[in-house]
Design goal:
With 303 residues, this protein is α+β, with helices and mostly antiparallel strands. It has three domains: 87 residues, Orthogonal Bundle (Muramoyl-pentapeptide Carboxypeptidase, domain 1); 82 residues, Orthogonal Bundle (Muramoyl-pentapeptide Carboxypeptidase, domain 1); 123 residues, Muramoyl-pentapeptide Carboxypeptidase, domain 2 (2-Layer Sandwich). It has a four-stranded antiparallel sheet. A three-stranded antiparallel sheet has the order 1-2-3. A hairpin with a 2-residue loop joins strand 2 and strand 3. The radius of gyration is 21 Å and the shape is globular. The structure holds zinc ion (ZN). Zinc ion (ZN) binds next to strand 5.
């Protein structure tokens, strides 16, 4: 693979070794749509409109920064390769009634279990064999979720893992869970429900558990993260806006923090840290994306 011959000074659209053209701001067409689709799969909120405008440019740059590539806003071979690498595997579609699995089990249901565990940040091989590592991951997951820690994967564990078609009365993401709060979206008041995520911070019930799972997975990787800011009331956002103004603070009513769907993470330390590299490799598994330029600490729930 000769990828080094293409530089940002190459002609506007040249073919790269990945088979995708080099794209820059102003480009249009189906390959831009492919680029936008891949950016979306990485958690960046861009429209798939086939037009490489300012939002796509900002997303490409943010992705390049997060991936340790040179931040030139040009989608060349390295950026294409990074966008394709580690793309989230499509979610498995388990049958409505998953079998109860125990240590020693083998087969496709075990593969589904292992894929779901991986989606939650546990490092197990997807080999279809329920061995010691899978058992340890199941127990760790059950402990983290307050389930009985028996290592046996029954309906409650399947449901907590997010297997589709499995429901459980203990599901913590139902709309009736959490605490009622006032949210704001595009300047409009909306009712939301929030749940504690530790440290006296709250997030929307839609993402609170995923966020706690992400912090637990980071901790298992030896990275200690904390929560600097989660859900904010209108008064809190007004105070921040008064203090910092735009763009450092969003206009009151327009911050994702007011929906409890954005979180500022402490302990990251910058873009060039082990903690940031871990987050950029793993946050999308939990539905989070670092999609505000120059704010390495700010993650938005994009699922
Ligand atoms: Zn923030």
């Amino acid at each position: 693979m000769a990828v080094s011959g293409v530089s940002s000074s190459s002609q506007r659209v040249s073919s790269s070794s990945s088979g995708m053209p080099v794209l820059r701001s102003g480009a249009r067409g189906s390959s831009v749509k492919t680029l936008q689709t891949l950016l979306r799969s990485k958690g960046y909120s861009v429209a798939v409109d086939g037009s490489f405008g300012p939002k796509t440019l900002a997303a490409v740059k943010a992705f390049q920064r997060a991936s340790g590539l040179s931040v030139d806003g040009v989608a060349g071979p390295k950026t294409w390769a990074a966008l394709r690498a580690g793309a989230p595997s499509p979610a498995p579609a388990p049958a409505a009634n998953m079998p109860t699995l125990r240590s020693g089990a083998k087969g496709s249901a075990v593969k589904t279990l292992q894929t779901l565990l991986r989606n939650k940040g546990y490092s197990v091989a997807v080999d279809g064999s329920f061995g010691a590592k899978t058992l340890a991951a199941v127990k760790s997951f059950q402990r983290a979720r307050g389930l009985s820690v028996d290592g046996s994967v029954g309906p409650k564990t399947w449901a907590a893992l997010g297997a589709s078609g499995v429901s459980s009365s203990s599901s913590s993401s139902s709309s009736s869970s959490g605490i009622a709060a006032t949210g704001y979206r595009r300047g409009q008041r909306v009712s939301i429900r929030i749940a504690p995520v530790g440290g006296g911070r709250y997030l929307n019930v839609r993402c609170a558990q995923a966020y706690k799972d992400m912090l637990a997975a980071a901790r298992r990787a030896g990275i200690n993260l904390s929560t600097t800011s989660g859900y904010r009331t209108h008064a809190q956002q007004q105070a921040l806006y008064k203090k910092y103004g735009s763009p450092r603070a969003a206009k009151p009513g327009y911050s994702n923090h007011q929906m409890g769907l954005a979180v500022d993470i402490g302990g990251v330390g910058g873009y060039n840290t082990r903690a940031y590299r871990w987050l950029s490799a793993n946050a999308s598994k939990f539905g989070f994306a670092n999609n505000v330029p120059n704010e390495y600490w700010h993650f938005t729930y994009v699922r």
